[in-house]
Predict the 3D structure of the following.
Amino acid sequence: MGIVHAEITLKNVLDVGYAENGIIQESEIRQATVTAVVDTGAGTLVINEKLRQQLGLEVRGTKQATLADNRKETVKIVDPVEIHWKNRDMVCRPWVISDNGKILLGAIPLEDMDLIVDPAKQVLTGAHGEENVGILY
């Protein structure tokens, strides 16, 4: 299977709340539309330092992470973002890795938005069609 990319929009959740409460204008919400690598082996959303700064996300902690090549790296855990893909969205706290690393859309956001990789077409698609289905086990 080849590399699958997806265009996603990331929004600073704190800004979204400020806009909803009239503290800032909706146009002031810090956001970015980026092309992410869909990485089912990554646990969550992974962004780079440049994007963290662009979105104005504060560092709230760190965590030891194992990279795909088995290297260990300390990653930053930052303020939450809204992830938007087509008609779906979810909120998560991204991990920040390296200054210019790729954006990775990992398993937790994929699962939350009911998305899978279609291996035949090599695209991101809804696991249950166009409807975003929540599954509780």
Notes: The chain has a mean pLDDT of 92. The chain has one domain: 5-126. The domain at 5-126 is CATH 2.40.70.10 (Cathepsin D, subunit A; domain 1). The first strand starts at residue 5 and ends at 12.
